[in-house]
């Protein structure tokens, strides 16, 4: 079976079974309540490639949530200075979640920890070797 995770206006996540269309889990209404900044809107939800059952949820004021959608459990939340998110991926060999914002900044979340030195502009990276 495949699963679909959706975010609704009531600030709840719902997990759907795509085989029969049933809603199999709903997050508690309090899941994000203590973490959301005043007036913040939850604006983007994306699956974390390589990390089954986990999603990232982004607020429009820089709040980021890592959620276990199967358990409807908040695993991590952090606040960063960024707007608009493009994609995210999990690297199991280093327990790192990488996500990129719309301005080309790459953020690294290693073992649930984020620090200022784990933030890189894409134009800071130098290509390795001579492309031919």
Description:
The protein is mainly beta and 132 residues long. The chain has a domain at 37-124: Lipocalin, CATH 2.40.128. It contains no helices and 11 strands. The protein has strands at 3-7, 13-17, 23-26, 42-47, 54-59, 63-68, 73-79, 85-91, 96-101, 105-110, 119-121.
In short:
The chain is an all-beta fold and 132 residues long. 0% of the residues lie in helices and 46% in strands.
SSE layout and pairings?
Elements: E1 3-7, E2 13-17, E3 23-26, E4 42-47, E5 54-59, E6 63-68, E7 73-79, E8 85-91, E9 96-101, E10 105-110, E11 119-121
Antiparallel strand pairs: 1-2, 2-3, 4-5, 5-6, 6-7, 8-9, 9-10, 10-11
InterPro entries: WD40/YVTN_repeat-like_dom_sf, WD40_repeat_dom_sf
Silhouette: globular
* Beta strand %: over 45%
Distance between the first and last residues' Cα: 44 Å
Largest β-sheet summary: 4 strands, antiparallel
Q: Give helix % range.
A: under 10%
Beta strand count: 11
Distinct helical segment count: 0
Q: What is the CA-based Rg, rounded? A: 16 Å
Spatial strand arrangement across the major sheet: 4-5-6-7
pLDDT averaged residue by residue: 78
Secondary-structure arrangement, i.e. CATH architecture of one domain: Beta Barrel
CATH class call of one domain? Mainly Beta
Unreliable spans: none
Structural class: mainly beta
CATH topology of one domain: Lipocalin
N-to-C series of helices and strands: EEEEEEEEEEE
């Amino acid at each position: 079976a495949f699963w679909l995770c959706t975010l609704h206006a009531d600030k709840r996540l719902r997990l759907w079974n795509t085989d029969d269309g049933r809603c199999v889990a709903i997050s508690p209404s309090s899941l994000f309540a203590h973490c959301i900044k005043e007036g913040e809107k939850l604006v983007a939800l994306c699956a974390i490639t390589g990390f089954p059952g986990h999603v990232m949820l982004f607020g429009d004021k820089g709040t980021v949530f890592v959620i276990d959608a199967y358990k409807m459990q908040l695993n991590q939340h952090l606040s960063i200075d960024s707007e608009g998110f493009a994609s995210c991926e999990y690297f199991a060999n280093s327990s790192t979640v990488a996500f990129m914002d719309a301005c080309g900044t790459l953020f690294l979340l290693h073992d649930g920890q984020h620090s200022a030195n784990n933030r890189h502009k894409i134009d800071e990276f130098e290509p390795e070797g001579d492309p031919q």
